[in-house]
Amino acid sequence: MTEQTLLEFPCDFPIKIIGVNQADYAQSILAVILRHAPDFDAASMEMRPSGKGNYLSLTCCVRATSKSQLDALYRELTVHPLVKVVL
Known about the structure:
Low-confidence stretches: none
Number of helices: 2
Distance between the termini: 27 Å
Strand content: 25-35%
Shape: elongated
CATH class: Alpha Beta
Helix content: 25-40%
Strand order of the largest sheet: 2-3-1-4
Radius of gyration: 13 Å
C-alpha cells in the first residue's frame, strides 16, 4: 500500500521553522534536520530574525525521499522545546 501524497519523491521540500532566538537554536534545529536528511547543506539554511529579535525563522530546503521521512521530521520539530511553529 502506498502512502497518499501529492508530492513526487525525491523532491526538494522547503520547511520553515520559527522558534525562540537564542544562541543554540539554529544549531539545535540543524541537528534535527540532519538526523532526517543527512545530505542537507547547512550553508543553505536561511535565517531571519523577527522585528523585535525575539524569534528566529529558519528556512531549510531538504531533499525529501518519502512521506514517512517528512512526517518524522515534522514530528520531531514540532515537539522541540524552542520551536513555536513549523510550516
